[in-house]
Design brief:
This protein is of the alpha/beta class. Helices cover 41% and strands 17% of the residues. It has helices at residues 2-28, 40-44, 51-67, 102-122, 144-156, 175-184, 193-196, 210-217, 237-241, 245-248, 263-269, 295-306, 308-317, 329-336, 368-375, 405-408, 412-415, 430-433, 440-454, 468-480, and strands at 76-77, 98-99, 129-139, 162-167, 187-191, 220-226, 230-232, 250-258, 280-290, 341-342, 348-354, 357-366, 393-397. The protein has a seven-stranded mixed β-sheet with strand order 5-4-3-6-9-8-10. α5 links the parallel β3 (129-139) and β4. It is globular.
C-alpha cells in the first residue's frame, strides 16, 4: 500500500514539474494569434511602412484577383514530367501532360486578359519606402534558427542591409527571437496574416505562395529575396549597385533542370513559346528585383501564385521538379514585358560521396556581376565551359537536408564516415569548393554552433532539447580542432 502511495505521489510530482516547465516556457515565448491583438508594428514601435496603405492596396488587388479568376477547376493532368538535367547545347522535347478543351482555354485566357486590363485601369501602386534596399525571407518554426545563422553570416560579411522576416501567421511569432535577437542583427518580423486576413479571400494563401506576398508587402524598393536556408558568401549590397541589376531591375538564378511548361500556358497568356534549349528552370531561393521598375512583373506573379496551386503551378511545371512558385517569376516578367537577367552559369551541387555517388546537400549559385561581364562579351560558359574562368560563387542554398542545429547533428551519415570518424558535409565537387575565397563550410558550422549555444532554450522548435549546444560543440571540436 505504501509503495502504491509513493508511486502516485511521484507521478503527481512529475506531472506538476512538467506543467511548471511548460508554463515557464509559454510565459517566456509569446506566440501571437493576431486575434484581438494590435498590429505588430504597434507592439514593436514606429512602423517602417504605411500599413494602412498596404491594406488598402491589398483590398484592391485581392478584388481584381478574385473577380478575374480562371473560371474552371484544376485541369486534368496525366503524370509528372521527369527530372532532366539542363544542357544548353541540347534541345529536349517533353510530352504534354495537361489536358484542356477549347472552353477551358478560353475561360482561363479571359480571366488572364481581364486581370491585365484591370490592373492597368486601376493603376495599383506598390507600397514601399523609396530609395531603400534590403533582404526579405519567409520563415517560421524550424526555419527560424536557419534565419539567425544567415543573419550572423551577413553581419560577419560586413553587410548593412536590413532584413525583413515574413511569418505566415501570429502562431509562428516568437517574442524573444522577433523582439530581441532579430533587432540586434538588423532584422524584424512581419506577420503576413495581419495584412492578408484583413480582407476576406476565398483562396487559401500559404506555402509556396508566401514568397510572392513577402515581396509585395516588403518595405524595400529594391529587394533581394533569400530562402531561409540560403546564405551569401559576399556582401550582397554590391549586387544592387552594378550590372546586370542596374539596367534590368531583375535577376534570376537557374535550377538544375529543364523548364517543363504546358503548351496551354502559352495559349492562355499569348506569350511566344521559346525552344527548350533556351529555357532552363528557375531556382527561386534567390531573387533580386526592383519594385519600382517591375511593378507589372509582381502583379502578374501575384496572379500566377494566387491561382497557383490548382492552375498555374501545374501549367508551368506539369509536376516537374520543385513545382511551385519558382517557375512563376520569369513568365511574369516576360508577359509583363519587363527586363530580366537570367544568370547563365550553371548551378552546382556540393555534398559528399555516398556509395559512389555525390549526395548533394547544398546548391551553389554564382556572381551575376561576373556572369554578366562574360555574357555581354558573347561568352556563355553554359555552352562552352572552357571559354573563360568561372564566376565566383555567391550564394549557398542548403536545401537538403536543412541544417537546423536542433536536428542536423543527429544526422550520423551526413557528418560521419562509415568508420565513425567525423567528416565535412561539403566535400565534392572539389573543383567548385576550390572556387570559394573562404572556408565556407567552416564559416557555416561556426555560426551554427553560436546559434546552438546562445539560443538553445529560445526556439520553440527546440523545446525540450538540452543537448543542442553540446552536440554542436563536439562536432566543431572533432572536425576543426576547436580552431575559430
Amino acid at each position: 500500500m505504501i509503495v502504491k502511495v509513493r508511486t502516485v505521489i511521484l507521478g503527481v510530482a512529475c506531472l506538476v514539474f512538467v506543467l511548471i516547465l511548460k508554463f515557464q516556457w509559454d510565459k517566456r515565448i509569446v506566440y501571437r494569434t493576431t486575434t484581438g491583438l494590435p498590429p505588430l508594428y504597434r507592439v514593436l514601435g514606429k512602423p517602417v511602412v504605411d500599413t494602412t496603405a498596404q491594406i488598402k492596396f491589398w483590398r484592391a488587388l485581392e478584388s481584381l484577383l478574385t473577380s478575374n479568376g480562371p473560371g474552371i477547376f484544376r485541369p486534368e493532368q496525366n503524370g509528372s514530367q521527369p527530372n532532366i538535367y539542363y544542357n544548353a547545347n541540347q534541345e529536349y522535347f517533353f510530352p504534354e501532360l495537361i489536358s484542356m478543351d477549347g472552353e477551358q482555354i478560353i475561360s482561363m485566357k479571359k480571366g488572364h486578359d481581364n486581370y491585365i486590363k484591370a490592373t492597368k485601369a486601376h493603376e495599383l501602386n506598390l507600397i514601399y519606402n523609396k530609395d531603400t534596399k534590403g533582404i526579405v525571407c519567409t520563415a517560421g518554426g524550424s526555419y527560424l534558427p536557419l534565419v539567425v545563422i544567415m543573419l550572423r553570416i551577413l553581419q560577419n560579411l560586413g553587410s548593412t542591409l536590413s532584413v525583413e522576416v515574413f511569418l505566415e501567421s501570429g502562431e509562428e511569432y516568437e517574442s524573444y527571437i522577433c523582439e530581441t535577437v532579430f533587432p540586434a542583427l538588423n532584422a524584424r518580423c512581419v506577420i503576413l496574416s495581419e495584412i492578408l486576413n484583413v480582407v476576406p479571400h476565398p483562396v487559401e494563401i500559404g506555402h509556396f505562395q508566401l514568397k510572392l506576398f513577402a515581396l509585395l508587402f516588403s518595405s524595400f524598393e529594391q529587394v533581394l529575396f533569400l530562402d531561409a536556408d540560403t546564405f551569401p558568401v559576399h556582401d550582397p549590397k554590391v549586387l544592387f549597385e552594378t550590372e546586370p541589376f542596374a539596367s534590368t531591375g531583375m535577376v534570376l538564378w537557374p535550377d538544375f533542370w529543364y523548364a517543363t511548361p504546358s503548351r496551354y500556358f502559352f495559349d492562355i497568356t499569348s506569350w511566344e513559346k521559346l525552344p527548350n534549349s533556351f529555357r532552363q528552370a528557375t531556382e527561386s531561393g534567390e531573387i533580386l528585383i526592383s519594385k519600382k521598375t517591375h511593378k507589372k512583373t509582381l502583379l502578374m506573379a501575384a496572379y500566377y501564385n494566387y491561382w497557383g496551386p490548382e492552375h498555374y503551378y501545374p501549367l508551368l511545371a506539369q509536376g516537374g521538379p520543385g513545382e511551385g512558385d519558382k517557375e512563376t517569376f520569369l513568365p511574369a516578367a516576360e508577359v509583363a514585358g519587363d527586363l530580366v537577367y537570367q544568370v547563365s552559369e550553371e548551378v552546382v551541387a556540393i555534398g559528399h560521396e555516398e556509395d559512389g555517388f555525390i549526395a548533394g546537400s547544398a546548391m551553389v549559385q554564382f556572381d551575376p556581376v561576373e556572369d554578366y561581364r562574360l555574357t555581354s562579351q558573347g561568352i556563355w560558359r553554359n555552352k562552352r565551359p572552357g571559354a573563360a574562368l568561372s564566376p565566383r560563387p555567391y550564394f549557398v542554398h542548403v536545401n537538403f537536408p536543412k541544417f537546423n542545429p536542433g536536428r542536423i547533428y543527429d544526422d550520423w551519415g551526413l557528418l560521419h564516415w562509415k568508420n565513425g570518424t567525423v567528416r565535412r558535409a561539403w566535400i565534392d565537387e572539389a573543383s567548385t569548393m576550390a572556387l570559394f575565397e573562404i572556408d565556407v563550410e567552416k564559416m557555416y558550422w561556426l555560426q551554427s554552433m553560436w546559434v546552438a549555444c546562445n539560443l538553445e532554450d529560445k526556439f520553440r522548435d527546440w523545446f525540450g532539447k538540452e543537448d543542442v549546444c553540446r552536440k554542436a560543440t563536439e562536432y566543431w571540436e572533432a572536425m576543426f580542432g576547436g580552431r575559430m
